[in-house]
Amino acid sequence: MAKTVGYMITWTTYGSWLQGDKRGFVKKGKILSSNQSLANSNKQSLSKKPIKLSAAEQQIVQNAILKKAEQLNQIIYALSVSSNHIHIVAEYIPKPIGLVVRHYKNSAQAALRKVGLAGRIWTKGFDKRYCFDQKTLENRIYYVNSHN
Predict the structure, then answer these.
(1) Rounded distance, CA 81 to CA 83, Å?
(2) Tens-place pLDDT, residues 35-50
(3) Hey, what's the torsion of the CAs at 56, 57, 63, 69, to 10 degrees?
(4) Residues 131 and 137 sit within 8 Å (Cβ to Cβ)
(5) What is the pLDDT of residues 83-129, one digit of tens each?
(6) Is 73 helix (H, G, I), strand (E, B) or coil?
(7) Which helix (H) or strand (E) holds 55?
(8) What is the distance between the alpha carbons of residues 139 and 136, in angstroms, rounded to a whole number?
(9) What is the pLDDT of residue 50?
(10) Smallest Cα–Cα separation from 86: which of 32, 120, 122, 136?
(11) How far, in Å, are 20, 26, 33, 67, 129 from residue 103 at the CA level?
(12) H or E segment at 111?
């Protein structure tokens, strides 16, 4: 079995990228195309307005993630914090990926709470793309750096 050299993780802000979205969406690791009926249904079930991070909030999230990566002793190869989603390409560390993502989400959320952003900030779950070789890792880094 190939050794995992890193991974790309992605998650979205609450309500900003719903299943069925016209841009496509990811479900259980598969990229699916638009489904307006599904998107409308999901939009109606939101309990509050979608979250869009301001430029200042994006910087707060970036700083919190980088600080947490240092605490986890994990190298971040690429990081993009947009108004509606976060991409991280990181080295593999021997911790469950769900736990690592939870650390990043919780740290960013705690930092945003300190500046007054209340309520739910992130969608449940995350997308993961494992990198089993250097070329795949470099492609993921390029992709994320293209978002900056």
Answers:
(1) 7
(2) 566 555 555 565 667 7
(3) -160
(4) yes
(5) 999 999 999 999 999 999 999 999 999 999 999 998 889 988 899 99
(6) coil
(7) helix 55-72
(8) 5
(9) 78
(10) 122
(11) 28, 22, 30, 11, 18
(12) helix 97-114
Q: Which residue has the tokens 């299943």?
A: 19
- Angstrom distance (rounded) from CA 22 to CA 89: 25
Residue type, 79: L
CB neighbour class for 25 (10 Å; exposed up to 12, middle 13-18, buried from 19)? buried
Residue tagged 């793309």 (tokens):
129
What's the pTM? Answer: 0.83
10 Å CB burial of residue 145 (0-12, 13-18, 19+) is middle
Query: Distance (Å, rounded) from C-alpha 65 to C-alpha 144?
Result: 15
Burial of 63 (0-12, 13-18, 19+ CB in 10 A): middle
Distance CA 105, CA 69 (A): 12
**Cα 80 from Cα 82, distance rounded (Å):** 6
